[in-house]
Design brief:
Structural class: alpha+beta
Distance between the termini: 33 Å
Number of strands: 18
Low-confidence stretches: 452-457
Strand content: 5-15%
Shape: globular
């Protein structure tokens, strides 16, 4: 009792000098708690009028407030859709308190208990919500979401040149913008990614490889600067060109329906949903179509089309990937010629980017296709029982790509030689504000110590029995090539994909550095330039316009647009136009790499001196983060990334336990932890501290 009294007195004293109007409320202990959590009148990240509820479904009323995770529902204050019935009372409570407190942003703690046959909501605490900027007006907020809703409704209608009755939008299918440029990229990053890849290059190369012609269809629309993949367009582009329109249409509808039923597969569509190539297990996989009315003749037609397409790609003598392989070296030759031919900054920027498409991202798109097929082929060896999971992992450990080469070269090259080779890389490949390796090398590397090469880089060999069975399966399935040729393709497909990426990012990185020099001439910082549109920069080369005026105008427009971008919260996958008004952050199925377990401390990648022996968290992971592997990190967690993404390949190659594509909720939970247990075999993560 004495301890209770002193505790109460300390709490009262903490409020300062009492006012006669002050009241102390005494609340009974809440029993039979069903769910509890915290809720906000405004989204703390966007400062927009979204009702945000973070809750857990159990009797532990401290789980959410102590950072233990939970579910998240986000709903516009102007939403006309109904929240989940179990959260309706929470929304009503926030709305009532918001009015009661004169429309000041608030956050609350709540609990919902069950007494007899009804649920009772308890307000445990209410506080002013301190926002980093003024909250957005309801009118502006509503108008913006309404525009997005109307755009989605129009785009989801049937299209005369597209198969499929409707579409879905996602941040991770296909060219996964969330991983490469983030979910809220600055205008320069967004426009560069569009220009180099998603406006036309992606479709041109996919059509070259034997798929339907989707040229002129932009793959990546954006909603006030938030990039999404148009999944219907993507799914159309994976259909072999020789399939009839009727069969192609039904196939696309099947893909979309499957993703609607299993949205957590949105970062694994090519491995779990789409039939994009022929593999040893294709006939078994095609049985999934039985439930959708596809007969045996139609499945055989799909199988034959995929076989023809795949053989044209993997052929050891005239496979399509070989043509693209030859192009990536042309890029380096032309870059050197360009630098020696002109001092005009705008001319260099223009041609670095144009060459970056023709000899960089175009062959990269082809080699990336070959890389996907290579991995699917390898996985099919596991599916039909030729390889074990351990064999699959060991094979990746035998590969040598840019990431493993960085680790080796860090040990054997001088600092000058190392930076000459790798200096163009930067975390956030499309982000002008992040320094290149050669601009701030101490930011990324510890030059006083060399990484101990702990990877064995195995010379992987298959057994005689495995070789015979693969040979038999190749002949049985009419796949071109023998065992040696198919493994040559698999190795080349995976390694050359990364080599092509390494090459074209040099053109991109150099163009960004030159743009920084151009901006400096007019007193513009890199931060300023991150808001411009690359189309305006390229127009300066073509036109005789005033460069300073065009740059400032572009930056002004970009800042205005990005202000709108920063005010928005949308779900990672949009399956219906109503999703933009309210949604629960979806369940994500992370990709666990290797068969290992690990217990280690957690570090943010910016803590350079504490990376050794730690699990490192990075939100989006592109090639510029390869510097991490020059440190002896114990594990890796990314918010975004697919099963065949850059970091997934890197982790598999280095034998590094990793969780790729954890999703926003799980990633936040992991990044806030002090120590984690990662079990890649059991596919689980446990917070230890």
């Amino acid at each position: 009792i004495n301890d209770l009294e002193s505790s109460i007195e300390r709490v009262i004293e903490s409020y300062g000098i009492p006012d006669e109007k002050d009241e102390i409320l005494i609340q009974p202990m809440v029993k039979n708690v069903l769910r509890s959590g915290v809720a906000f009148s405004h989204d703390p990240d966007t400062c927009s009028p979204y009702r945000v509820i973070n809750w857990s479904e159990n009797s532990n009323t401290t789980l959410v407030t102590s950072g233990g995770g939970g579910k998240v529902w986000l709903q516009s204050a102007e939403s006309s859709i109904n929240p989940p019935i179990k959260l309706k009372s929470v929304i009503l409570l926030i709305d009532e308190l918001y009015i009661l407190f004169n429309k000041r942003p608030i956050d609350i703690e709540f609990a919902i208990s069950k007494e007899l046959d009804r649920e009772i909501i308890w307000l445990l605490q209410v506080r002013p919500l301190i926002l980093k900027k003024d909250p957005e007006s309801l009118e502006d907020h509503k108008e913006r979401i309404k525009n997005i809703e109307q755009k989605i409704m129009k785009s989801s209608s049937p299209h005369p040149f597209l198969m499929g009755k409707k579409t879905i939008y996602g941040v991770m299918p296909d060219w996964n913008p969330a991983e490469m440029i983030g979910i809220k990229p600055k205008p320069l990053s967004l426009s560069l990614y569009r220009d180099l890849i998603t406006d036309s290059t992606w479709a041109y190369q996919r059509n070259n490889y034997g798929y339907r012609n989707l040229r002129s269809f932009p793959l990546m629309p954006h909603f006030f600067g938030l990039p999404y993949i148009d999944v219907r367009v993507s799914f159309n582009s994976f259909v072999p060109i020789d399939l009839s329109d009727d069969l192609a249409g039904r196939l696309v509808d099947y893909y979309i329906d499957r993703l609607l039923k299993q949205p957590k597969l949105h970062d694994k569509v090519e491995f779990e949903i789409v039939f994009s190539c022929y593999t040893l297990g294709i006939k078994e996989n095609l049985k999934r179509l039985d439930a959708y009315g596809f007969d045996n003749l139609e499945k055989n037609e799909i199988s034959k089309s995929l076989l023809k397409l795949t053989n044209n790609i993997i052929d050891s003598k005239k496979g399509l990937w070989k043509v693209d392989h030859s192009k990536i070296y042309k890029l380096n030759e032309r870059r050197n010629i360009l630098y020696n031919s002109t001092d005009d900054i705008l001319e260099k920027i223009y041609w670095l980017l144009e060459d970056g498409k023709r000899y960089g991202t175009l062959p990269f798109a082809g080699l990336a296709r070959a890389g996907f097929i290579a991995v699917q082929m390898l996985k099919s060896f596991v599916d039909v029982g030729i390889f074990s999971d351990e064999d699959y992992e060991k094979y990746f450990s035998s590969l040598t790509t840019i990431s493993s080469q960085i680790c080796k070269d860090k040990s054997k090259l001088s600092k000058k030689e190392f930076l000459l080779k790798y200096g163009h890389l930067r975390p956030g490949t499309y982000d002008i504000t992040t320094p290149r390796y050669d601009e701030e090398p101490e930011k990324y590397f510890n030059w006083d110590s060399n990484l101990e090469d702990t990877n064995n880089y195995l010379n992987f060999k298959i057994s005689a029995s495995q070789s015979r069975e693969i040979e038999r399966q190749l002949k049985k399935n009419s796949l071109n090539g023998n065992v040696n040729e198919i493994f040559h393709f698999i190795k080349a497909g995976i390694e050359l994909r990364e080599q092509a990426k390494f090459n074209f990012t040099k053109n991109l990185s150099d163009a960004l550095s030159l743009l920084s020099d151009l901006g400096e001439k007019y007193g513009l910082t890199r931060e300023d330039l991150s808001f411009c549109d690359i189309r305006d920069i390229k127009e300066l080369y073509i036109s005789a316009d005033d460069a300073e005026y065009i740059l400032e105008e572009s930056i002004t427009r970009g800042k205005k647009r990005y202000k709108e971008t920063s005010r928005l919260s949308l779900p990672p996958i949009i399956t219906d136009h109503k999703d933009v008004w309210g949604f629960e952050f979806p369940e994500i199925s992370p990709n666990f790499i290797t068969q290992k377990q690990i217990v280690a401390n957690v570090q943010n990648y910016k803590n350079l001196n504490n990376l050794e022996g730690s699990i490192v968290c990075i939100d989006n992971a592109d090639p510029g983060f390869d510097w991490l592997f020059s440190h002896s990190i114990a594990g890796l967690i990314t918010a975004w990334g697919g099963v065949n993404s850059h970091m997934a390949i890197r982790a598999g190659e280095l034998g590094l336990p990793a969780v790729i594509g954890a999703g926003e909720i799980l990633y936040k939970k992991c990044s806030l932890a002090n120590k984690l247990f990662i079990d890649c075999v059991g596919k689980r993560i446990e917070v230890l501290e």
